[in-house]
Amino acid sequence: MQANAPIGVFDSGIGGLTVARALLDLLPEERLVYYGDTAHLPYGDKSEAAIRSYAHGIVAFLREQGCKAVVIACNTASAVAYDSLKSEFPDLPIYNVIDPVVEYVTLGDGEKAVGVIGTRTTIKSDIYRRKIKEIRRLIKVNSMATPLLAPMVEEGFLNNAVSEEVLKEYLWRKPMLKVDQLILGCTHYPLLIDQIRKVISRDIEIVDSAHVVAKKVAVHLESENLLNQKKASLKSAFFLSDYTPVFEANANRFFGEKVTWIERNIW
Amino acid sequence: MQANAPIGVFDSGIGGLTVARALLDLLPEERLVYYGDTAHLPYGDKSEAAIRSYAHGIVAFLREQGCKAVVIACNTASAVAYDSLKSEFPDLPIYNVIDPVVEYVTLGDGEKAVGVIGTRTTIKSDIYRRKIKEIRRLIKVNSMATPLLAPMVEEGFLNNAVSEEVLKEYLWRKPMLKVDQLILGCTHYPLLIDQIRKVISRDIEIVDSAHVVAKKVAVHLESENLLNQKKASLKSAFFLSDYTPVFEANANRFFGEKVTWIERNIW
What we know:
6-stranded parallel β-sheet; globular
């Protein structure tokens, strides 16, 4: 692997851009190759076999693009496709969005309660609870599906009366009232973090997976001597499998700057 | 066709149950066979070819079940698959959820403004505007995508602070402020009708496609002597392609009574 090669990032759509943003904020010398699999979104509705097959196609494409590492910036694909990607691409460092968060919240000792919010698919998979309990059995994990949050964010309802009411409706429910940390278990949710903090109004830690994952990638690539030593000369590239204008408008909001998309059907 | 045969109704999921409800309320002697294609929902994300292929499989199944007529209780499938279903099944009366509504709002004469709300796919297809304009050019049609409403209804956020804020956010936008009639262009929306009326607060007519379509079906089947003359002895049957407990809980709310589902993969 070349240290000056790009880092691949993929998601079923737009959410992974929060991870891409966090990566570039932390590692401004790096170049990304992003793939949003908009033709198949939402992954949450698809079978595990289908998601695995999409993910394999995408990682093969990212490797062809010369990527030195790949970040699965999607909870559903992380839950379902990580193991098979690791065995299919044994030489490529691959990161998912779940393990770094589990590792982070299980640091230290003592009892505590951790809340997890995510899509119906992610919460139903129970993956956060299982992985946290494997490491620290005494941590109480309160999971709750919050399926309206992702479409709400995609609709641009942020920091307004709608998002406030929706967040209150979810976060003032009993399982969330006594948690010490809250995991944002969906890559759409970092856009809501300020308002989530305001609605919760207690002083708890909100664990934004985009940042935790970016840190994990930075530390690991550094230890492997795979970080770019000078600013990449090429700009990051953004591919998607099905272009729509709505997606483009949303993408700019998620990424915090204008994104130029290239449509590329890789199947 | 036998008058005592059932009426087939299908949708990608749950929304069509509002049409099923309206049909049984209007025609209590009838028996329905409902098919919810939950394995492929949401149709809005799928290609036209894929939706047509699903719809053909479902109508073939409904005909095997002995249905005397079929209602496409889904806007996306109505827009995309109606013509090909008509030519594939020429002897079967087939109804869609769009034409009866277009026919209804274009009755009479004079200028007026009609609002249409629906999913992103339905509004993007521009089908209501095109069909209305074909019949009465002077009707002004203001369409607006309201993509958060369907997931909101599926989440059970009805008549609460969330649904009020979301409806205000949409319905107080300029294109909706001066309409004389409002078409609910999605079979999920009848569950919101009371709150929509409250949020609009002007005295306009809200056109609930479930009721308009049920009336159309009733009038047409009557004219063909295809209405059941005495109460059906069998109960209505409800099939779906992929069972989940969440779907079942939602379905009861949409249908207004408990539904017993049979999982049947017809592909």
